[in-house]
Amino acid sequence: MSFNSVKVFSATTATDRESLGERVSQWLRDHRAFEVVDRVVTQSSDDAYHCITITIFYNAPAPPPAPAR
User: Fold this and answer.
1) What is the pTM of this model?
2) DSSP label at 59?
3) Are 36 and 56 within 8 A, CB to CB?
4) What is the full DSSP assignment across 42-56?
């Protein structure tokens, strides 16, 4: 798997966890030129908090070359 960029989404509060999927979906819609090559969903918790993290591995298009001077 080859990638050149990573985007991490995380949420700790219940309200944020409920909207996390929509945040990821909106980001994907806004970045259609990116080629997603993998994703990892991680959950962690302790006595007080439950955290979910969605990590997106992707290839961003190369920037256009700088104009010659």
Assistant:
1) 0.83
2) E
3) yes
4) EEEE-SS-EEEEEEE
The neighbouring-strand residues paired with 28 are: none
pLDDT digits (tens, 9 = 90+) for 15-51: 999 999 999 999 999 999 999 999 999 999 888 788 9
Residue 40 neighbours by CB under 8 Å, 6+ apart = 54, 55, 57
5-59 CATH choice from 3.30.70, 1.10.3720, 3.30.1070, 3.40.1710: 3.30.1070
The token duo for 41 is: 């969903």
Q: Which residues pair with 55 in a beta bridge?
A: 8, 40
Dihedral, CA atoms, 1, 7, 61, 67, nearest 10 degrees? Answer: -130
- The amino acid sitting at 46 is D
Contact 68, 12 (CB under 8 A): no
